[in-house]
Amino acid sequence: MALLARPGAHCAARPAAPRTTPRTAPTARPASGRRPPALRDLGPNWYAPVMGTAIVAVAGAGLRAGAPGPAAGIPGLGAVCVVMWALSAVLLALVLSARAGHWLRHRDRARAQLLDPAVAPFYGCLAMALLAVGTATLTVGREVLGERAAVTVDAVLFGAGTLLGPALAVAIPYLMAVRHRLSPADVSPAWLLPLVAPMVSAAAAAPLVPYLPAGQWREALLYGGYGLFGLSLFATLTVLPLIVARLLLHGPPPLAATPLLFLVLGPLGQSATALHLLAGAAPGAVGASQARVLGAFALLYGVPVLGFALFWLVLAAALVVRAARRGMRFTMTWWAFTFPVGTCVTGTAGLAGRTGLVALEWLAVGLFAALVTAWAVAAWRTLRGLLRGTLPAAAGAGAPAPAAALTA
pLDDT digit string (tens) for 42-98? Predict the structure, then answer.
């Protein structure tokens, strides 16, 4: 699904108060010269590196599962997947701890972020980070932890992420509707983040189906996954036209927010992935005739959606190139190049396995190469910004700000 830089939105509280800039600017350095508290400006966008790291492991595992094929020639792919899973698990623990400290020590700031329509959508990253690391643990981490421990960890993270995802998918739009007055120019691809979380749950449910008792338990989880798929799909379809209209009628987003256009790939790739995985889990949960129908549905849905995803990928990439030529600098929005592209890798690899098309296998490998490159660039620039204390401000369209610990 990255990423906190302001999309340039200005919102005002109801009913008719004058518009004010949401309170997301970094805390000014005190006159004494000391840095502000390390956790003061930590935002929910910091779950995006967790997602972006975990998806590399999951996508690589998906390519390995399709071997023999083009992915079979990638040296050390299995080892890379294990390293990326372990790193994502460590990052999840660090960010969860830091965010807990943020809520305990800076509750006023945390509440302000939750009530800010430009920041609140990034709370969806919490659910997706839990789900992504859980799936990576089951698909990759079981080589290290063993199957039983991996299933237990995944079940816990899946349960937490699935409880949070639908709740946030309702709560964030509710807060935006009742607490703020938004205009068409305020529309941001970040609005998709809480809506995609249930789709990630749908995909994450499938690998757990075989570990449940046969009968009602497996069938309930399988169809529960399809229910989460529908929740996310139809919610996304209400927002996606707004994003396209905003782009065409109001022009490209601000430079720092341009990478957020890649977030549109998230629900596209993740929905194709979810249907592929759920159809793969169906034979052990439902009858043969139902399983065949679900497999056909995955194919008939996935191919057209992949076509639109490729269209949007080219369009978003062209706008990013335009923004780079106009001076776009690094911000946390660059993590939007990771998780959404990773979902396209898993969706394409699933279609390749279902159709047997070598062209789709090569496309999945090419997208995986782009994903790894994007992750390496975003990770290096983030780490360098933290070490130098020059990580761009969360709200300042790229203006430098002090960066202590996990400050954004």
Answer: 889 999 999 999 999 999 998 887 655 676 667 788 899 999 999 999 999 999 999
**Residue 325 belongs to what H/E stretch?**
helix 288-325
Burial of 119 (0-12, 13-18, 19+ CB in 10 A): buried
Per residue in 329-345, pLDDT (tens digit) is 999 999 999 999 999 99
Say whether 12 sits in a helix, a strand or coil.
strand
Hey, what's the torsion of the CAs at 28, 329, 346, 161, to 10 degrees? 10
Give me the pLDDT at residue 68, please.
58
Nearest to 129 by CA among 97, 99, 88, 169: 88
**Half-sphere exposure of 169 toward its Cβ, with a 13 Å CA cutoff?**
27
Distance between first and last Cα of the chain = 19
Distance, CA of 229 to CA of 234 (rounded, Å)? 9
- With 0-12 / 13-18 / 19 or more C-beta atoms within 10 angstroms meaning exposed / middle / buried, residue 189 is buried
- Name residue 392's beta-bridge partners: 400
Q: How far apart are CA 277 and CA 154, in angstroms?
A: 16
Average pLDDT of the chain is 86
Indicate whether this model's pTM tops 0.90: no
Token digits for 227?
A: 């229910």
HSE, side-chain direction, 13 A CA sphere, residue 265: 31
As a whole number of angstroms, the distance between CA 177 and CA 225 comes to 28
pLDDT the model gives residue 255:
93
